[in-house]
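Need tokens for this chain, all 349 residues.
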Amino acid sequence: MPEATTIIPVILSGGSGTRLWPMSTPEKPKQLLALTADETMLQLTARRTAGETFGAPIVVANARHADEIEAQLLGIGVSDWTLILEPVARNTAPAIALAALAAGEDAALLVMPSDHVIADKAAFHAAVQAALPMVEQGWLVTFGIAPHAPETGYGWIHVGEGIAPRVHRVARFVEKPPKDRAEAMLAAGDHVWNGGIFLFRADAFLGALSVHAPDMLHAAQQAMLKGRTEASRVHPDADAFAASPSESVDYAVMEKAERVAVVPVSMGWSDLGSWDALHELSACDQFGNACKGDVVALETENSLIHADGVRVALVGVTDLIVVANGTDVLITPRGRSQEVKKLISAMKD
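Here are the structure tokens for all 349 residues:
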């Protein structure tokens, strides 16, 4: 293994973030919002992989967000990047294939969603360094989040035999489990959450695609071959990319490939998948309230109130989530914010 392998961050920014409606919208999804800090989720993700260990990032995103993404990268001092603009959404595996083709076969790719929280950056970097020796040998590595609850909203990974310091073979991937199964896996102590963060060489990933999803690889290759590049922006061919199957990287590759490893890590991770998750991460006042914007809260406890553009006033309530953005207002009891998707569906109907 070379003494210093340059790692290319691949930031997946194609998601619509519907679970954080009404702040997150298709026009300005969750990753482009400042939710946990003064900087946006995308900016925090890019900062996490700045420095001499890492090369210029590749961002894979929806074409409608191109200007905003570039402005946000410039806003934190990033001056060099590749922005691959998906002509149509095809899930994570085809998006990563585009990035792997752009990066070149010998690149080590650190694939990250653009909208996750990692509080302990040092622990994250240490896990990446632990994975690198196996990555150089052609292994596909994922990072398993040390679980602290019987979470049913995440996939899990059964941690197998150790193959290097801190690195284990993946025994198997587990789909989002029912509560009793999640409790059993947590108690057993040999399972981790699937955080959706990966490290592998581009050639190893593309090689696995050629075996397990050849139609997807062909579509990505044709999309890049027939596409065009304008400065830092890459426009894959729309018709060629639309021909790709729409599959997650877990389903298309990680669950099927032979040499797949996991590095368990505790790094203050959250996928920030709901308003409840944001409340857990937020600094609260002495009454357990997390308030942002023009908010007046009297005799109110254990609530999250976000106001953008309007004043929100509450009195005598507890355990509520109230989010106002423009003309849209969400009100739900704490513990039920995962059901926002139901609301989105109902409003479409």
